[in-house]
Design a protein that fits this description.
By secondary structure, the chain is of the alpha+beta class. The chain has 2 helices and 7 strands.
Amino acid sequence: MAYADTQQIVLGRLHTRLNIDVPLSERIRVEDELPTNSQYAGRLVVVTVNPGSPGDTTLTLDLVDLDIDAFAGSRDRTRDLAEQVRTEMRVHLSHYTDPASGAFIKRVQTLGRPAPAAWDDASRIERWSALYRLTVHHAP
């Protein structure tokens, strides 16, 4: 049995959901790492697996902790983006079945609500971070 890549499922789902009815010039980037272009100033969401994730509790059940950082050009825009991500995670990702892998995301918990986070960048980009735990049933 192979476990689905929960990080990739969330990346794809957030990219799709966050960009509904968003003009191409204002699209939100959803990545698994910070872009190498340090001059990037658009809205950005970075999804990474927290190394402290509990992991599988039974053969087909996995607990996955995801750190999600939101970046934007002002405190208000960053907070709004982080809260938009929280809504997508809690409301639209719970009870979602990934069509490609068959993985079923049963539950999404907010372990750490979106909040301003330290950011060593000299630019005017703001960062807000949150921590989510996903309960995922993997297809055997």
